[in-house]
Design goal:
By secondary structure, this protein is mainly alpha-helical. Helix content is 53%, strand content 0%. It has a domain at 14-72. The longest helix has 28 residues, at 45-72.
């Protein structure tokens, strides 16, 4: 079975804007916590399914939060899921 190895060299050649934007505010460190992801230690399909569902939930929650911030500039009236994030 033939394989194609696709290496994204852009990842290595471009600059991560979040490392430099608002450097004094530690923006990258704060965003890294929001987007944190713990890789599963197993390749069991059921565990991978659970991890994938949890990641989808995490990203959906973040999307809702950032959409609210973009529209309202505040989370005061946010009625979406409220987790430790």
């Amino acid at each position: 079975m033939p394989y194609i190895l696709d290496i994204d060299l852009d990842f290595f050649s471009t600059k991560n804007p979040f490392r430099d934007i608002y450097e004094r505010a530690n923006l990258y460190d704060k965003l890294a916590k929001l987007y944190s992801f713990k890789r599963p230690s197993s390749c069991d399909p059921e565990i991978l399914k659970e991890v994938s569902a949890a990641r989808d939930e995490q990203l959906s929650e973040l999307e809702g939060l950032f959409t609210m911030l973009d529209l309202e500039r505040s989370l005061i009236d946010y009625d979406g899921p409220k987790t430790t994030r």
